[in-house]
Write a structure and sequence with these properties.
This protein is α/β, with parallel strands linked by helices. The chain has seven helices and six strands; from the N terminus they run βαββαβαβαβααα.
């Protein structure tokens, strides 16, 4: 399953619409999205606006790929579970956030975890989904090994986030 999540704070229609368009062309992939406050309602993929923490955790655990905004909670959860992660940052210029801090988050995270895949726009997101579909990103042993993160590093990241 491909799990798409946008968090609970702001809409991210650009991400949801792009993955929904891809899902329409690839109905053989089980794609499920947590769309939050998005105004766009998916037509080709299953979705919920919000999820309980337990259901969210189950969806992340069941996923083969997680597609998300560059939110730290999602990044940390994916790293803890050893899941492949495809990020598309929200952009202030698109009215998706008040600033471009998600670009800074991606820069820092990809320096530490170069296996995290980033799409900066809709075209790149579709290209990365095609790479995934063609199994270019699908080598579970490499992914699992590369996503092994020390608990100490995760604790440091969590501590940094909660103290701001």
């Amino acid at each position: 399953m491909i799990f798409v999540t946008v968090g609970s704070q702001l809409p991210f229609d650009r991400l949801i619409m792009t993955v929904d368009d891809w899902s329409r062309l690839h109905p053989d992939y089980d794609t499920f999205a947590q769309i939050g406050l998005s105004r766009y309602q998916p037509k080709a993929m299953r979705f919920k606006t919000s999820m309980t923490p337990n259901d969210y955790q189950k969806a992340m655990q069941a996923s083969d790929l997680i597609i998300a905004h560059a939110g730290m909670g999602t990044i940390i959860s994916a790293l803890e579970l050893g899941k492949p992660l495809l990020l598309m940052p929200r952009l202030a210029s698109q009215g998706e956030h008040r600033n471009d801090h998600q670009l800074a988050t991606i820069k820092q995270m990809t320096q530490k975890f170069p296996h995290i895949v980033v799409a900066y726009n809709e075209t790149e997101l579709l290209q990365e989904l095609e790479c995934y579909r063609m199994k270019k990103h699908d080598n579970p042993s490499i992914i699992k090994e590369s996503l092994t993160v020390s608990p100490k590093l995760l604790d440091a990241i969590k501590s940094f986030i909660t103290t701001e």
